[in-house]
Amino acid sequence: MKRRFVFSATVLSLGAAASFPATASASAGSGTEHIQITTTNNDPGAVLARGVFTASGIDYPKTHSADLFVFPTGAFTVHHPGGSATFALNPTTCLLKFTFTGSYKLNGGVGAFQGMTGSGTYKGVETGVLPRNPNGTCDEQKNAQPFSTVSRVTASGPVSFEP
């Protein structure tokens, strides 16, 4: 059972992000950036970044190992190859839980994020409820879609750019 877990589902709902003004403030420099991503039901994730720059935006998955973070003043790509994950399923409630960790690299910045580079580590958890088979067991088929999912990811690491 493989789903999009990293930098997606993961940490504020899209509706919440849309209800607040999304601003970005950045100045040339480097330091530690902290990123939180929340995703519900495989919708694009809401991103909150703070540190060298402060911004709220949206996480759009590009591939299994890359996402595009889009903010009002620019965007950048997050590459997150590999990592590790564990899976747990409660057979009584059909509650599934994935926990995952890994590393990432930032690049491909445009707009206010032009010239951005950075890297760091992330950790996250995704939970959901699987449907049941006619016999009452949890449907663990690869194409089984959970009734709902919530994913939360936190990441941090050094970043540098010239806005």
List the helices and strands and how they pair.
Layout: H1 14-19, E1 24-26, E2 29-40, E3 45-50, E4 53-63, E5 66-71, E6 74-79, E7 84-90, E8 95-111, E9 117-129, E10 149-161
Antiparallel strand pairs: 1-4, 2-3, 2-10, 3-4, 4-5, 5-6, 6-8, 7-8, 8-9, 9-10
Question: Could you explain the architecture of this structure?
Answer:
This protein has 163 residues and is mainly beta. It has one domain. It is 4% helix and 58% strand. It contains one helix and ten strands; from the N terminus they run H-E-E-E-E-E-E-E-E-E-E. The protein has one helix spanning 14-19, and strands spanning 24-26, 29-40, 45-50, 53-63, 66-71, 74-79, 84-90, 95-111, 117-129, 149-161. An eight-stranded antiparallel barrel has the order 2-3-4-5-6-8-9-10. Strand 8 (95-111) and strand 9 form a beta hairpin. It is elongated and about 60 Å long. It starts with 13 loop residues before the first helix and ends with a strand. The relative contact order is 0.26. The model is unreliable at 1-25 (pLDDT under 50).
